[in-house]
Write a structure and sequence with these properties.
There is one protein chain. An eight-stranded mixed beta sheet has the order 3-4-5-2-6-7-1-8, sandwiched between helices. Strands 9, 10, 11, 12, 13, 14 and 15 form a seven-stranded mixed beta sheet that branches. The chain is of the alpha/beta class. Mean pLDDT is 86; it is low at 503-519. Helix content is 40%, strand content 18%. Helix 5 (69-88) crosses helix 6 (101-116) and helix 18 packs across helix 20 (485-495).
Length: 519
């Protein structure tokens, strides 16, 4: 079992003499890095020790979010930048591939922050001679490079880290074009890690199919929330309980809530309260949901992701008007340069999640400009944000779900100022079928593009089309308490776009079909 390996790895490290311990990756990190400029020495969790010192060249890690996987991968690259030249006499090369530019830059930021905590003596031995947002080079010739996911070529002997690989676009092409970069030298490694997206795609297959990926047999690890002291109040005891009570097979909401309340940190309990149970299982308990009946197939969804494309994405819990005012400059930067931005808004009661998506029509494609998720947001806060968006001259339409009456008062209030630019939509079965089919066709035809926004990917992939016993079509999220709010906000955003999803014309661009440009 994975946790036994983790615990033994820590015990083995601590049993080494200090002069030998410091020559291992985990020992070097603990001996030479600190928790910030004024913090104490870095203390690693046992699974992090295992990952730093694991002997396997090829490793697959299914992981919970917020356990520090990206950080420990960055720490390993820094340690090997010093240790590999010491062991082999050749410079080290580490390459990170991430799902978008922001996450790629975060890896270099982690390495740089760790480097800044080194003692003056160690910084003297491992001087930086070149540094950018995507690259670090040291005086001993070692280099660490990080960029959005794309095949790595011409970099033989490199350590490769494929981070959040389940969410990477064109993942199979990236993997096929990358493995050769590490085969020239026997001590180079390929580390593939991610939270799950579903039972599809190369990351899932690598973790489960020995016939296609035998190289990972015996080198597949899972890191659950109960493996991390940041998320669990007592990982050692919680692990025993997980085995004795078969947590990984008890996936109903009551069972999950019981273990989260008993062993989860306060932050994890709050996250559980804010998420549908299916999303929580995927994000924190390494559960791969079925995708066979997904409205948007996995491979179709991932073709829409451009890792070089950035759209503004954020999730706010219990936001105030002050929080909204603070994010407006980011929204303005994201919206700059787009001639028209259509906005879809799926409102929510205070205990649920509201979603707002803005999309532009450019070069024959729908480009997602921003995605905003508001959890437990007072209606006045939602009204303030949607009102600000409606006032933007580049927004031809704000389309609001008025089902159940939540959005109707806001739609009427905004329409008094902005007229037919404010569109109210009632989610009848016919309307939902139209919206869902429209979005599915746009994805299928390659007409939607967006960045690697995990929340957007998770919610779009969660939508299912089902036929009831009476023969009626239903569209719903992956569970009773999941409504795929971001999907519906995206569907509302494209509803009023001048798009043809059928026929030879494909996408028809031009001015909004029933609205004149603002003066």
């Amino acid at each position: 079992m994975d946790h036994v390996l983790y615990e033994k790895a820590l015990q083995a490290l601590l049993a080494l003499p200090p002069e030998e311990m410091v020559l291992t990756e985990a020992g070097w990190v603990m001996a030479h890095t600190h928790l910030g400029p004024n913090g104490g020495p870095t203390v690693l969790e046992d699974w992090q020790v295992w990952l730093l010192n694991a002997p396997q060249r090829y490793q697959w890690v299914g992981k919970s979010r917020q356990v520090g996987f990206s950080w420990v991968a960055a720490a390993k690259a820094l340690a090997r930048s010093y240790l590999v030249p010491l062991r082999t006499g050749r410079p080290y090369l580490g390459i990170f591939l991430s799902i978008n530019r922001e996450e790629a830059q975060n890896k270099i930021r982690y390495v740089a922050e760790l480097f800044d905590t080194l003692s003056p003596e160690m910084r003297g031995a491992l001087k930086t001679v070149a540094e950018s947002r995507t690259h670090l080079e040291f005086s001993n010739g070692s280099r660490i490079v990080s960029h959005p996911a794309r095949p790595v070529r011409g970099a033989s002997g490199a350590d490769i880290v494929l981070d959040e690989f389940a969410h990477a676009p064109k993942a199979e092409d990236i993997y096929r074009g990358t493995t050769a970069a590490s085969i020239r030298r026997g001590d180079s490694t390929i580390l593939v890690g991610s939270t799950p997206l579903g039972q599809g795609g190369i990351f899932y297959e690598m973790g489960h199919d020995d016939s296609r990926y035998p190289i990972y047999k015996g080198a597949r690890w899972r890191v659950y929330w109960w493996d991390s002291a940041a998320l669990c109040v007592d990982p050692l005891r919680a692990r025993r309980a997980a085995i004795e009570e078969s947590w990984t097979s008890r996936l109903d909401r009551a069972s999950v809530e019981e273990r989260v309340r008993r062993w989860g940190s306060r932050a994890l309990q709050e996250e559980f309260d804010a998420l549908p149970v299916e999303t929580f299982l995927q994000e924190y308990e390494v559960a791969f949901s079925a995708v066979s009946d997904a409205l948007i197939p996995y491979d179709v969804l991932m073709r829409a992701v451009d890792p070089e494309l950035e759209h503004y994405a954020t999730t706010l819990t219990s936001p105030t008007v002050a929080h909204i005012e603070a994010l407006i400059p980011e929204l303005e930067r994201a919206m700059a340069g787009a001639e028209w931005i259509w906005v879809g808004y799926d409102p929510a009661r205070k205990r649920d999640q509201a979603a707002i998506v803005g999309a532009a029509l450019e070069g024959g494609k729908v480009r997602v400009v921003f995605r905003l998720s508001l959890r437990e947001a007072p209606f006045a806060v939602q009204e303030y944000l949607v009102g600000w968006l409606a006032a933007r001259p580049q927004v031809p339409y704000v389309v609001i779900d008025v089902t159940g009456g939540m959005g109707a008062p806001l739609q009427e209030k905004l329409a008094a100022s902005w007229g037919n630019r404010i569109v109210g939509v009632t989610f009848t079965p016919q309307e939902k079928h139209f919206l869902a089919s429209r979005v599915a066709a746009l994805y299928s035809h390659g007409r939607i593009v967006h960045g690697g926004d995990r929340e957007l990917l998770a919610q779009v992939s969660s939508l299912r089309k089902k036929v009831t016993a009476s023969g009626r079509l239903q569209y719903e999220g992956s569970g009773d308490d999941h409504h795929a709010d971001v999907f519906w906000a995206l569907a509302l955003a494209v509803r009023e776009m001048p798009i043809a999803t059928e026929g030879v014309g494909g996408i028809v661009e031009g001015a909004p079909r029933s609205w004149a440009s603002p003066q």
